[in-house]
Design brief:
By secondary structure, the chain is α/β, with parallel strands linked by helices. The protein has ten helices and ten strands.
Length: 280
């Protein structure tokens, strides 16, 4: 079992709106990749080999901007940082409010563009198939099966590189685990177990360990170890870090399982060091 964290988006250059010139996208992307590279030494020193990086590592400005604008310009930096990432597993995540299952074609198109943007970033960094792009199936508009049908249809329009790296997850509002698991099964792609979403939409008496065992069926050898999403909420708000009581309870359920856990907290480094200490 490995535990990692989400690189804080606030450490990147802040994107002011979506109207960026190609030169500015390249300039900001270059700086962000180098900042990302600086954090990798800390990861290695602390035994961290699982890492989530932001969508805007290379600024995403919308479907109209092709990755081909910035990929050739950032190839050298991508290769250098990619070599430093060797042995680490990287995840990215699309914006939850945009979904390929949306009846709004503009929103669905943006979701697909975000997925392809993540795929292009992973390709730039020379990341293999075990690095994954996490997306939500999205808000249920009308009948659930219609949302699933749109999601599946749009998935088939993605590039091969993106398809090989895309995974879905259960969420806190619309898709309980078994609903999302059904969509993943139809597409033959993995599902990430979202632990806080499971706690909110606890549709079954099965434990988190039981559900993780079910989810493991969707992960093939080439996908790498199964991924589990962990964060904590208090009165509806996400906590900045993990707490001893809640994380210890969660860890007792998953101890011994072959999973990679990514902590989604504002204080990523503090959280992962605390979590690792609690597992010793």
């Amino acid at each position: 079992m490995k535990i990692g964290y989400a690189y804080p988006e606030k450490k990147l250059l802040k994107k002011q709106g979506n109207r960026l010139s190609p030169k500015k996208i390249v300039r900001m992307g270059r700086e962000n990749i180098l900042r990302l590279g600086d954090s990798l030494e800390w990861n290695r020193e602390n035994g961290i080999s699982v890492f989530r990086i932001p969508l805007d590592t290379i600024p995403f400005t919308g479907p109209a901007t092709s990755p081909e604008i910035w990929k050739p310009e950032l190839d050298v930096e991508g290769q250098v940082v990619g070599e430093e990432l060797h042995g680490m597993r990287v995840f990215m995540r699309t914006t939850p409010q945009y979904s390929m299952g949306s009846p709004d074609k503009g929103l669905a198109r943006r979701s697909m563009a975000e997925i392809e943007h993540c795929a292009a970033t992973m390709e730039l960094l020379r990341l293999g198939k075990s690095s994954k792009i996490i997306t939500n199936i999205g808000r249920v508009a009308g009948r659930r099966k219609d949302t699933a049908r749109r999601f599946i249809s749009n998935f088939r329009r993605l590039s091969g590189f993106a398809k090989e790296r895309l995974v879905v997850e259960n969420d806190r509002q619309h898709w309980a685990f078994y609903d999302a698991f059904g969509v993943a099964g139809k597409l033959k792609i993995p599902i990430v177990f979202n632990y806080p979403a499971f706690l909110k939409k606890q549709f079954t008496e099965l434990s988190a360990r039981d559900i993780i065992s079910v989810a493991s069926i969707s992960w093939r050898k080439e996908d790498g170890p199964q991924k589990v999403h962990y964060s904590e909420f208090s009165k509806g708000k996400k906590r900045k870090t993990v707490t001893k009581k809640e994380f210890s309870k969660f860890y007792a359920e998953v101890d011994g399982m072959k999973v990679d856990i990514v902590l989604d907290t504002e204080e990523g480094r503090r959280s992962v060091l605390k979590a690792l200490e609690l597992t010793r």
